[in-house]
Amino acid sequence: MVSPLHAKLFRDLWRIKGQALAIMLVIGIGVALQVMMSGFVASLTQTRDAYYERQQFAQVFAPVARAPERVARRLSDIRGVAVVETRISGSALIDIPSRDLPVSARILSLPAYGMRHLNEIRLTAGRRPESGKIHEIVLLDSFASAHDIVPGDQIHVTLNGAYRAFDVVGTAQSPEFIYYAAPGEMIPDDARFGVIWIGRPALAAALDLKGAFNEVLLTLLRGTDVDAVLDDVDRVLDPFGAPGAYGLADHPSNRFLSEEIAGLEISAKNVPPVFMLVAAFLLYIVTSRMIQSEREEIGLMKAFGYSDTEVSSHYLQLVVIIALGGAVFGCFLGVLLGRLTIPIYTTYYKLPFLLFRLELASFASGILTSVLVASLGGALALRRVFRMTPAEAMRPPSPPDYSKAGAFGTRLVRHLDQPTRMVLRRLVRQPWRMLGAVTGVAAGMALSLSMLIIYEGFDEALDRTFNVIDRSDASVSFVANAPSRTIFELQRLPGVTLAEPVRNVPVVLRSGRKSYSGAITGLAPDAQLFRALDADVEPISLPARGIVLSAPLADILDVSIGDEIVVDIRQGSQPTVVAPVSGIAESLMGSPAYMDLEALNRLLGEPMRISGAYVSINDGEQADVYSALKDMPMVAGVSLRIEAERAFQQIMDQGAGSSRFIMGFMAFAITFGIIYNVARVAQDERARDLASLRVMGFYHGETAFVLLGELAAVILVALPLGVGLGTALSHLIAAGFSTDLYQIPVVSAPNAYGTSISVVVVAALASGWIVQRDIGASDITLALKTRE
Amino acid sequence: MVYETMSQQELAFRAHGLTKTYGEGRSAVHALRGVDLEIGRGEIVVLLGPSGSGKSTLLNILGGLDKASAGEAWFEGHCLTSMTDRALTGYRRNHVGFVFQFYNLMPSLTARENVELVTEIAKHPMSPEDALHLVGLGARLDHFPAQLSGGEQQRVAIARAVAKQPDVLFCDEPTGALDSTTGRAVLRVLQDVNEKLGTTVLIITHAAATAAMADRVIHFADGAIRDVVLNDAPLSAEEIEW
């Protein structure tokens, strides 16, 4: 037996189904985002942690030029060190027959005995090299599949200047290469960067490192201070030419993954509440209206002896049903979106598996928050039920008093027609509702606008990086530092129009207690192809003395132009010098520091040395140049600008494309939810007014103006507010997400503004259209007969 | 029948076989069952009858608020029953004034502004102030509905209806929510408008006494006109027994 109140509940729900659905949509998106993002965080974190543990991923990494194996003992004596493992690491070029240019690769030693201890590889196919078989290698899984290489194939590799054939016996993944990009780039491209694992004796022989190592991996005992260990490791390895040890936190692959997780965590915390607040506001106005129009029924129920609590719980049930409906929908949507989109992560993050993890906690918190927030909105409206006595409630309400709202108007509105006055007075009479609507629309718009601006920023970064800062066609790196005259050899190659030298030197920059381990890029003073640019995108002339820091680096070191910093050079004789900061350069990728090439060489005491070159090539002659470069023994790698740009573009198209759509949809949903509900409530409240206008001979459009004028006003105020909030938010997001790895510029983004404004306007028009349609459809005589 | 004596020029309304049916089949409700009538210009006509007898339906069709299922209704030279929605809106806008039981004032506009709402879109309106003086509210021009009594609100509604100087004034239970003194005052205003402006006035009422002020009284029953009574000596509003 259904109680009459329950029957009323379901009929009420059915009657306001459009509004209820719009609110459920807003709640649903909020919950879906929360479920999805916290699911991503959980999936990525748990997968990462499990993977690191299973493969015994090291916690400290220390490259060194060449250290004898016995030094390892001294490292294991360091307090807090659990396991020490030495290995050999080098760079190589893989010759892929289908490509003009060889692909640069890292080559790493596998221990000669049994299984490795640290950074264990995870075989995806085939087997490990057998001991003694020096031609057997394991290849990075993603690189192998990008080139259709399978175990049993043979590949040709240039290693330390020697061109050799190797048998691929297996493919593998590694926690070291979850996220990786070719040297000097930040966007992963499976095809253009390879990793080779080979037995240690073979690699030691090839790189002339028998009985020695050039990299050491450490794990630490629980609770060990990493910084102290890093200092100790540096002390031990310094005499052997070590650029400096770094911890897991600074490991490039781990950093990218961790930054991603941190960003998701921030979004998961901050975005869903916006939707919840909007939903609470909507439920408040809908419930308020319902209570207002049902005051007689409420009075009657009270007169029959229903208590305030019983009456309130009736309305609260309605609110809770809507909230629950939205939340459950959101949970399913979140899981669906999560399952659908999590594979995107595996294209960038090479995890052995990545399943979307259902976080039951996020389910529970999503549902609980929606119900709580919705109830809060409902409860605010329900206060009125308690205030009404049955007799009072059953009396018809007197007309709403506009005498206060009207007072503002007499002079101000003298020149306005009556319908406009009606619109204005209503806005003024219910400023909180209007403010709520304005804030809600502006918040929804700001959310999407800021993300769209960020995407435009990426586009700008793409353009600036590849067309303004780097105008070369290819960058060439040498096996070892070469004499500067090498540049002329490149310049002489047929097809090369310009070749400019560069020297990259690993350094640790210090200012006070702050330090940053990176590299200085030495450039020719009149460089054309690769330049340091200032904030106005004008080239900075590199002074004979002094160093130009990229903006993020200046931030990290907390220095500005004129300050002096300590430069610990981690190459050659490893001198430590003091240099003044002579300029701040814009950069969008990494945190470079620039110096005049000759000045840098002077500091090193190694005149006329370069580590690579930027070249520009005549159209149509690329293939000739590439094949010539392929044959030059000192060339360690060639990276093509166009390929890097393409990889970047691809990531933009894949990731950002769908995100843009989602952002647009979010703004649409919020705007639609708000405008539709506010319009419905306004229409409901004013059914008689609108009918009267129709009776008096106002045309449909004139009547719609009175109803929709206030919504137009809401949108007109919300648009500039949304633009302001969105712009401010984009600055916050850009600042929050920019790291020394990459910087997100905030650019003027006309497209982003255009898109978000259009979405809001379209959503408003759509909801306005649906509501005004009903003005025509409603029976105008009926509205006049019934008392409010 | 009486109305056959009037010439076309003297007629405000005429209807022939006017039928209105709501719903279909067995559940169909016949609100009007083939009504024929003529109403002269400048007359005060009172429509009497029990609830559901069809008087409101007739008023709605003549006022351009509803459409007939069959039959014809003419206002002067215009056939109301063949007009589009837009044309009907234009008809209400330019020729008709309405007064309702629940006043239907715009709460957000003052008395004067409520009247201006109509004068702004009318072709030959009187000044809003004159209209409000006519109903005796010259002193309360800038009050909002919430600050007026029921009778005052109804008088504003009448001022609003007459300010456009309509050809016809339709009043659906104009005194239904009012006490006798206020009710009489309201009827007085309707009579004044009729006398001073020559407006045809149609009044629906449950209060049979109101019929005493009419030139013509039409009795409704079961969706049809039961009889039409001509009143050669209408009483003034003050003389009506409430």
Automatic annotation (TrEMBL), chain A:
It is a multi-pass membrane protein. Signal peptide: none annotated. The keyword Hydrolase does not apply. Residues 437-624 form the MacB-like periplasmic core domain. InterPro entries: ABC3_permease_C, Lipoprotein-release_system, MacB_PCD. Keywords: Cell membrane, Membrane, Transmembrane, Transmembrane helix. GO terms for biological process: lipoprotein localization to outer membrane. Its main location: membrane. It comes from the Bacteria. Residues 274-390, 662-771 form the ABC3 transporter permease C-terminal domain. The chain crosses the membrane at residues 21-44, 315-340, 360-382, 434-455, 661-682, 703-733, 753-771. GO terms for cellular component: plasma membrane protein complex. It holds the Pfam family FtsX. It is found in: Cell membrane. Belongs to the ABC-4 integral membrane protein family. LolC/E subfamily. This is FtsX-like permease family protein.
TrEMBL record, chain B:
Residues 13-242 form the ABC transporter domain. CDD domains: ABC_MJ0796_LolCDE_FtsE. One of its GO terms (cellular component) is membrane protein complex. Keywords: ATP-binding, Cell inner membrane, Cell membrane, Membrane, Nucleotide-binding, Transport. The keyword Membrane applies. The keyword ATP-binding applies. InterPro entries: AAA+_ATPase (IPR003593), ABC_transporter-like_ATP-bd (IPR003439), ABC_transporter-like_CS (IPR017871), MacB-like_ATP-bd (IPR017911), P-loop_NTPase (IPR027417). One of its GO terms (molecular function) is transmembrane transporter activity. It comes from the Bacteria. Belongs to the ABC transporter superfamily. Macrolide exporter (TC 3.A.1.122) family. PANTHER family: ABC TRANSPORTER ATP-BINDING PROTEIN MG467-RELATED, LIPOPROTEIN-RELEASING SYSTEM ATP-BINDING PROTEIN LOLD. This is Putative ABC transporter ATP-binding protein/MT1014.
